UniProtKB/TrEMBL annotation:
Superkingdom in the source lineage: Bacteria
Broad class of the protein's primary localization: membrane
Subcellular location as annotated: Cell membrane; Membrane
Provenance organism: Aeriscardovia aeriphila
Record protein name field: ATP synthase subunit a
Bilayer topology: Multi-pass membrane protein
Lineage: Bacteria, Bacillati, Actinomycetota, Actinomycetes, Bifidobacteriales
Amino acid sequence: MVSFVGLTTASGLMHLASAKQPDYPTIEDFLPKPALFAGTPFAINRIILIRIILTVVILVVLGLTASHAKLIPSRWQSVVEYGLDFVRESIVYDVIGKERGKRYVSTITTIFFSIFIFNLGAVIPFANMAATATICAPLVFALWSVYNYWAAGIRAHGLGGFLREELFPAGIPWPIYILLAPINLIEITLIRPFSLTVRLFANMLSGHLLVGMCLAATQFFFIETNTKIFAPFGVLTLAGGMFMTCFEIFVAGLQAYIFSILTASYISMSLGEEEEEEDKKVSQAAQPAAQLAAVSA
């Protein structure tokens, strides 16, 4: 609904301004023509180029930070370490558990920072487009999340045990399984990846449209019209554009957090409660040895 309203309003402003002025954002911004290698399977348009550049930036920044890490961290190292600790402690360990979550720290950390930086493309100068504002990138992250969910469950229970746990939950009268099992199968194969994809894609797309709509209206009121009576409306739309830009930064982090939390929750559900109890026993058994080692040291 937001996307429809944004497109309708932007189209109306374009018509009011001038049919010869192609300066306003349109739906073609989301389907740009290839800029490199056009006509080949390796064609790269603007959005793909943004994804490549942001991926390189993530790798270079984290690589340089790790290679120059010091015992007494610098301010930048402290910021990076805080982000890593936040994902590890507040997302992975809180949802999955410390013992079980160690295996998935790197995966969920990668998902969180990749989505966060990709989302920030919406407010980065010269990019001005979230790398997750088209369906492909959110779909890849969603499939990656669901893959880890299936892999964790199969590793813990085997394929048969995993499907039995998911399709035939305990404590339900058997006739209900006739309806419940197909529904659960559709959920774990289609609904979960679909919901993850649409949630991320729709939020970033609608945010981009709202920012574009505010700035398009600002240009219309300040530049395209020759009447000063519209200037107050331009001030309002400019303020709205600035507010929405700041709000986009908040949404970029929020969507990365929600996606990572859901991924961790799916993995935790696939592992089941039995393995969680075993991990707690292992952790408790290791505590005396750790305390003895600390005293000996």
